[in-house]
Amino acid sequence: MGTLREILNDHVREADPRLVEKLDHNRLRCFSCGHCCPIPDGQPGVCKIRFNRGGKLYVPWGYVGGVQCDPIEKKPFFHAYPGALAYSFGMLGCDLHCSYCQNWVTSQALRDPDAVSPPLEATPDLLVQDALAQGAKVLVSTYNEPLITSEWAVAIFRAAREAGLLTAFVSNGNGTPQVLEYVRPWIDLYKVDLKSFDDRHYRELGGRLQPILDTIRRLHDMGIWLEIVTLLIRGFNDSDDELRRLAEFLSGVSSDIPWHVTAFHKDYKMTSPEDTRAEDLLRAAAIGREAGLRYVYAGNLPGRVGDLEHTHCRRCGEMLIQRYGYMIRQYQLTPEGNCPACHTPLPGRWSRQFDGQIASRPFLPRRHAQLVKILTR
Fold it and tell me: Of 42, 111, 138, 142, which one has the fewest beta carbons inside 10 Å?
């Protein structure tokens, strides 16, 4: 047995050279996230998991912090293969330190001694085989920040593509041009958490606003299917002015980008303010629509947000996809992804037919992929 730090230091591989720049005095610059850390020999970057050893950058490899089977709507992707099962995996570590993180046991594992998530030995082939056995359509890197473990994700996504699976990142979006070009050939879908439209708020979380905005623009320009989520927190990011500026930015990139406003609930270190109300989500959604966004959704409060769980045709208003939480109740798209009433295309990524839904809620894999827990002390 070893400490978590010792275990993770043994589960590494040298970074892809496209994500590293050599500096003076044996320092290295890492381009896996927007911090672009200049890392001295013997030290990690801000993320705590990419580190310089002898003038070489080492990155996480060969383990997962956990796996779970999720409805794709949980990610959330509402304009990509409704009803599909998303086989979700993550590693440990993050480049931000959000006090309300719902995945803090993995993301803050090397910052917070209370964050305990024993890693599991894994290989790309083993994860892909298990995803196929569960009936998954999409393999998703999530739960921690996937950009800082891009080399491992790309190795898994290569195997996934060979097996006919789709791939996705669920990310804070704190990227760089280098890392986005690196993952670009291997990613089909990308969800970005746009946590605020105020740089001061982002600095409280350990980041900056501009790299996230740049990532959103680049992902759209790259043609990767993109959806945006904003967790609405009362008194933090929910003013009309901030929401309007955020929505206008997204609409300026593309009015077809789906924007999900979701409800905050007390978690981790943030035990105030009060949980987000349905009326808060309805107000934010109205601001998004006024800003020109065509597809605005409200999440985490099923049955309490009117028609904001559903997808309608932007032209004639026909109900195209009806949802309750993560459950698909009605699906009316044509095989081409068009409205059946007026034939207007619905932006997104669609199957030629609705294949049903394996699960409307998350579950652990029925057979646990033969993953072996790495013992730590």
Answer: 42
Spatial CB neighbours of 71, under 8 Å, sequence gap ≥ 6: 83, 84, 85, 86, 326, 327, 357, 359, 360, 361, 362
Token pair, residue 255, equals 């009015």
Residue 301 lies in a domain: yes
Model confidence at 108, pLDDT cuts 50, 70, 90, reads confident
Q: How far is CA 285 from CA 290, 296, 303, 347, in A?
A: 9, 6, 16, 19
Decide: residue 45, CB within 10 A, 0-12 exposed, 13-18 middle, 19+ buried: buried
φ and ψ at 65, to 5 degrees?
A: -85, -10
* Paired tokens of 251: 């609409």
Token pair of 175 as six digits: 């990227």
Distance (Å, whole) CA 359 – CA 348: 21
For residue 115, the enclosing domain spans: 64-331
pLDDT tens-digit readout, 5-32: 888 888 999 999 999 999 999 999 999 9
CA distance 14 to 285: 44
User: Buried (b) or exposed (e) across 249-259, using 16+ Cβ within 10 A?
Assistant: bbbebbebbbb
Q: Which pair of tokens denotes residue 333? A: 């798209």
- Cα 55 from chain centroid (whole Å): 31
Q: List beta partners, residue 295.
A: none
Could you tell me if residue 361 is inside a domain?
A: no
Q: What is the pLDDT of residues 35-58, one digit of tens each?
A: 999 999 999 999 999 999 999 999
- The count of structural domains within the chain is 2
Q: Which of 23-32, 274-283, 362-371 has the lowest mean pLDDT?
A: 362-371
Question: What's 371's DSSP letter?
Answer: -
Q: Can you tell me the mean pLDDT for 241-262?
A: 98
Task: Please check whether residue 343 lies inside any domain of the structure.
Answer: no
208 domain-assigned = yes
